[in-house]
Structures are given as structure tokens and as C-alpha cells.
């Protein structure tokens, strides 16, 4: 039968009878069961009109009907296999199994093409649903078409044909909804009528209709009607590549017919135009091979476009993790922050210490990743108001570690630091009364010296008037260099600027770590005077240094540290001892026995060799008596004097501490 | 704490909440050379594009793929979209990593961090100020590029609708809203880079380490995303969604990709920011 019809190009009566008997339309009036009709949109073989006919017929029998326009079809595209299977199963569950709780989905659903998934280039689908199936002609909007009556030819042999749907080329029809697609009309073989650019978007959902007058020089006219979406740049897109074949009988006298265009779901953007094309040929169809001339004009000038206003696009479903992931992360973040807080509460301030600039009790800090090596161990001392305290110790004694703990930069493992009675914690507010210069300058190299100081003060958030910036700058003594970027500064200039920064706001407790490093002798002397003046005004200064000689000249009190431990603390005079020490220069080497003899002299605390000579600690005797004794012992004395007292005391102390 | 003891507790006028104000931090960062260079690079890129199109002629898509490149010369809005297209994957990652990764680590390397902390600026306060300024700078970089491109493109190609590569046009008003949305999405999707860089910044004292680490991990993310064998696990890679903003330039706005991208980015960012605050709050500052 197929071969017969295919060769003849027209079905004969027997073929017609057979097809009609096999068509669902033959049994439609007897289908009384709930029916789910799934029809592909990209399908030139079984177009949406078939689904429409079934839905109408079965609904007339009173059975529930749901219509689902899937995305793909026989022309290709996404068949939505899994969704279709799921919906079919739900339908069977509801009506065959009788599971009343099963949701069978909306009465009408369209799979609409959204954009492209930017992560993989796939087309995104969204469902549009309606509470009832609207048919193919719901909610008309009439779009005016323009165009004169046009004549065109049906070429002999019906070739070359226009191209619309090309069966087998999958994906082309999908592409049409994105604005690209292959379609071709052969010049001289079609009539076309355009609308004005649309002032608002238009979504076609169903079969547009148009009334045309058709006249032909043959008995029948065979036309292929299609509606294009034409962009502003003239690019035309044929929705789903679908075309409606029309046979107009008795066209010789001219007839006015209503042409139903293919049912599609397609959105036109505002600014695009609709274009009606009636062509004499199409690649997908057999058409008359006899040459003919057709004349087509618009009968009433309007294309009736169904818009199905009851159908609404649903937002694309989002997986649950879209909300769950950030919420979970927020919980994790909160947990991290809450468990990360220091467990020990800040101890209450001690009012008895409110006037004590610094009290350190039992302070210990281990080296990182070490259980028993201490940078500072069981350190305790106290600083009173008005003191200039020298923190003395060789490199690695733990001075800087102590100062860092004092500034709240590192947390002690044990012990407590109180400044004016307040326990020190990272960022403790009482630190606003402390000015510090520890381990070198820290400036923004791209800013000038004055900008650095100004921004630093503004960062403390305190009133500009409290900064006393002029006094600080006087101490820095940088002059015009203040207006240069800090990166151009020498080491000494940075040092002075940093000390000036520490003095901003005239803090009650000023901490200077190795302040004279990189300064020249006049500046060192000046710095000394600055410190003494500063403390004289009732404030307190802590100076750390390993340059002992100069600390001795500016400090009132000393704290001597070595290897993390406190060696001695007290007024300078107390530490250096009342009698002081004497350095004896001599010729040649002194034997161990000779040193032992000096050590054993009455009134001598200790005697030991140093690089500069014999260091003798006096304990009762006088220098004159000592000299006499030394001469008696036949020591070749070349020089004799109370030289560099503090350094010697310091070395003596350290020697004792490490023994 | 009674008001009587308040006098000795802090220096007059000191309030923890007023330390390191955003304006001060902004000024401190703004005058840095890297900030200026970054701004200059981003401001010059549109000019470079225009010159390139002038020399090379009308741009063509590679292998018939439709990209924003093909419509770059259609209008100012198109050039702005194209500038975002060419720079979103890498060029815009750099300022985010730079501003957020360098901010704490550079203070540590200059030793100025300890003076700020001893001022004292409370540690959380310091991080909040620094993070806010770094994010504002990052956002400014992202706004600067399309803005300059829009201006340059308008002079070069005229003020017109945004022509989309897939066909169709957006009127100028809509196009500007969509471009703003694109910039907002890029900013939100870069939060993960920002958080990673910021966290690294609090961990290391080497600014380059923090910036490079963040950029490097972003590249690793891109590489992982290219491994299709990972399947849907890639949904949880921030790099997977880096071009989701293109959804805003399609005829049909698609929100799905952008919502997922923001979700992934924000989730990672929250945890990384929390790690930064937690780690820095208890850290021994030895720089």
C-alpha cells in the first residue's frame, strides 16, 4: 500500500480506507479511559495537531485527558526519555494501580527551550503548565500582515524544492528555538507577507491561522505554508522547522481559504517580525510536478496567533543543594568561629595594680612545636611609674618574646601580664595606653613618613588632637624627608620614625626595643635624653638592649634576662654592686693559679679573665688596696680602673646564671 | 566595668569599634602601586580590544562556534560584554586574588601588622576592615572594566542594543541591567577566590604566596572541571559555574546556573572566611 501511494503521489480509495480504519480517529469515540497524550514538538511526521484531535475526541467521552508536548520528536532533539517514563509510570500508578495519592501532573504541559546550559552547551528545558488543555487556538492575538498579491511558480518536476524540515538531521529543529536553523525558499517559488516589528514579545502556542485568496492556473493549488520569526538583522528562523501542506481544490476560479499553520510553541522577542510564506514546493513533501502559477493575496490582512494565556512557564527546578550547601557552610563557619574562641575568660582588672604600669607574673612561652624548650620561662618582674627600665640580655635571652607577649601579639603558655592592672590579651584595650617599638620599624613603604604617622594615628581611631604629632616629629628629626616615601629611607631614618610613631599620643607606657640600633652617637645621646625626659613627666619607659653600656646611662632600673629566665631585677646601682668592679689591664697571660690567688684575696668578690683583662668584683676592699695586692702578687698591671661597670656586672651575672 | 575604672583602662578617646576605619584602610591601600597598575590594566583592556578589532577586522567565531566575540563590534554594550567574556576566566581573578590575598600578608611582610595590632586594632576588627576594603576594590575592578569598555565601545561602535551571538537583540536599557547582573554574578562567584586568598593571607607572611596560592588553586579548579569523568561532582567546583553569567546574555534569562554558581561560591567562601577569622584570632603574630 505504501509503495502504491508513494509512486502515485496520492492515496487511492483503498489506501484511504485502510488508513482511516487504522487511525486512532476510528476508535476515538470508544476510548473512555484516562489518557495521557505525549506528542513531540519537533515532529513533522506526527505533528501536535494529531494530539489535539485525540485530546478533543477522548475528552468528549468524559475521560480525563492530559496533554504533554515533549521537546523532541521524530525530527530529532531531546526526547526527554526519563521524564516521559516517569510521567507515564505515575499515570499508570494512579489509574491502573489505583494509587490515588500519585500526582499525575498538570493537564497540559509544554517543554520549553530556555537558554543554553553554559557549563556544557546543552539546551535547557523548562516546563510550562496549564490547568487545562487549551487546544491549538486559544487566546488569539491578531498580528497585521502587509504585502501585495503575489504570483509565483510551481517549477516543473517540483524542483528545486524549498527546505524546511529535513528528516533525520537531528537537532536542527532544536536550534530554531535558539535563533539558528536551516531553511530555504527558492526565489520565484513563494509569496511572503511580513508584519511590522512587534512592539512586545509574542509567544505562539498552537496553530496560527490566516485567510488568503488563492488563484491558480491549474485545478488544484498545493501550497506549503509557514511562519518565520524574523530578527532585526533579517535572519529568519522557522519554528521547529515545521511547514503546513495545503491543497486548495478548484483554485482556478480563485478561492478564499483559511490556512492553519503548524502548531508550535515559540516565542518572538520584541522587535522581531512575523513572516508568512506560502511556497509551491517543499523538500519533505511530494508536490505536483506539472508547472503552474499561483497567485496569493491576503484576505483580511491578519494572522491570528494563539497565545494560550493560561499556560505559564515554571522556573527551572533547582536541586536541593542550592540552598542546603550555603546553609551547611554557614553552620560549619559558625562552628569554626565559636570553637575558635579563647576558652579562658579575661581575668577581671586588678584595682590595686591600676597605677602599676607593668606586672609580669610567672610568664612562660615555649618555642613553637616544642614541649620543653622555653623562650621565656617563669619570668616575673614589676615596673613602677616613672621608671626607665632596662631589659637586658644577650641575643636570644627572650627579651623580644616578652615584649611581643606584652603587646598581645603572641599568647603566653603560662603566667600573666598586667598593664595598669588590666590583663593583656590580643587587642586588649589597655594597649591603647602603651606605645611600642619592637624589632624594627613597620611602615607602608609606598607612603611618605608623615602619611604613615597620620594614617597610623587615624587607625587607632583616637582624636587627632591627642596625637601630639609635632612632638613626635621633633624627636624623629627627619625634616623634609618626612615628605618622601618611606622606601627611600635609610635604616636610621626608619628607626627614628618608628620611635616617633611609638610616642604618638604620649603613651603612659613606652616600650622601645633596641632603640639605638642604626643611630649615630649624637642621636644615641639625644635618644637617651628623650627617654629620661619622658619618664620624668611621670610616664614609664621600658628599653630593651644588649648594648649594655648605654642602658646604664639612661635607666633607673634593670631586669637582666638570659635564656628566657630572669637573672636579676632591681635599681641599676644595686645590680652593679656598691663597690663596683675593677678591670685590670696587664701584660702577657695570667696563669690560672694567679687568678685563683686574686679571687681568694680578702674583700674580693670574684676575679676572672676577660678579653680586656682581669675583671675583679670588689666586695669590701678598696681599689687602692686591691692594686697594692696585685702588685704584691707580681701581676704586670698596665691599666687599672672602674671601666664599663655594668657590662661587667652583666657578664658576671650571666656567667653565674648559666653555671 | 564601672565608668570610674574606664579612665585607666584605655587611653582617652580610644574605642575598639572605631579603630582602622574603612576610609583609612582604603587610603592605605589605594596609593599602592599594584592597585594603580591593576586599575590601569583593566582600563586599558577595552582600548586594546578596539585596536585589535581595528587591525584584525571584524571578529569571527572560532570553528563556527557562536561566542560573544562574533558580535563584539556591534555596539558599546557588546564591547562591554566581550570585555567581560575575555577576562572573566582569568583576568578578573587576578585583582580579586591580589586585593584579598595581599592585604594582611603585605602588612605582615612590612612589619606594620604588629603595630596595628598593638595600637590596638582588635584582630577581628582588622580582618573586617581589610576584607571589606579588599572586596570593595575587587568589585571596583569588575565594574571598571565593563564601564570603560562601554564608554570606549560607544565611541567606537555607537550606542545601540546588545546583539546576542545566538541571534536577537536586547534594547540598551535591558542590556545595561543584564550587564550589571553579569558583573554582580562575577563578583559573587569570585567570593570563593577572595575567601581563599584572604585565608591564605592570614596564614602566610608572604604576599606573593597568598596571591599565587589563590590563583593557582583557581587554575587547579579549572583543570578539575575539565575532567568530565568527574561527572556531576563537578557541580561542586566553583570553576564549573564560571561562565554561568552568560545565561544573563541569552534571549531567555536563565537563573539556574547562576544560582548554583553563587550557592557553591558562597558556601566555600563562608567556610574559608571563618577559617581566616578563627586562625588569625588565635595566631601568634611573629612577623
Q: Would you kindly provide a written description of the structure presented here, covering whatever features stand out?
A:
The complex is a heterodimer of chains A (659) and B (287). Chain A is of the alpha+beta class and 659 residues long. Chain A has 4 domains: 129 residues, no CATH class; 173 residues, Jelly Rolls; 224 residues, Rossmann fold; 61 residues, Alpha-Beta Plaits (2-Layer Sandwich). Chain A is 26% helix and 30% strand. In chain A, a hairpin with a 7-residue loop joins strand 18 and strand 19. Chain A is rod-shaped and about 155 Å long. Chain A starts with a helix and ends with a helix. In chain B, 66% of the residues lie in helices and 1% in strands. Chain B is built from 11 helices and 2 strands, in the order αααααααββαααα. Chain B is globular. Chain B is mainly α.
Give a quick summary of the entry.
The complex is a heterodimer of chains A (659) and B (287). Helix content of chain A is 26%, strand content 30%.
Task: Report the average pLDDT across residues of chain B.
Answer: 88
**Could you name the CATH homologous superfamily of the largest domain in chain A?**
P-loop containing nucleotide triphosphate hydrolases
The percentage of residues in β strands of chain B lies in under 5%
Low-confidence stretches of chain B: 1-6
- CATH architect. name of the largest domain in chain A: 3-Layer(aba) Sandwich
Rg value of chain A: 51 Å
Structural class of chain A: alpha+beta
Pfam families (chain B): ABC2_membrane_4 (PF12730)
Protein name (chain B): ABC transporter permease
Transmembrane segments (chain B): 36-57, 77-100, 131-159, 179-201, 208-233, 253-277
Organism (chain B): Streptomyces violaceusniger
Keywords:
A: 659 residues, Jelly Rolls, Rossmann fold, 4 domains, six-stranded mixed sheet, 30% strand, B: 287 residues, mainly alpha, 11 helices, 1% strand, globular
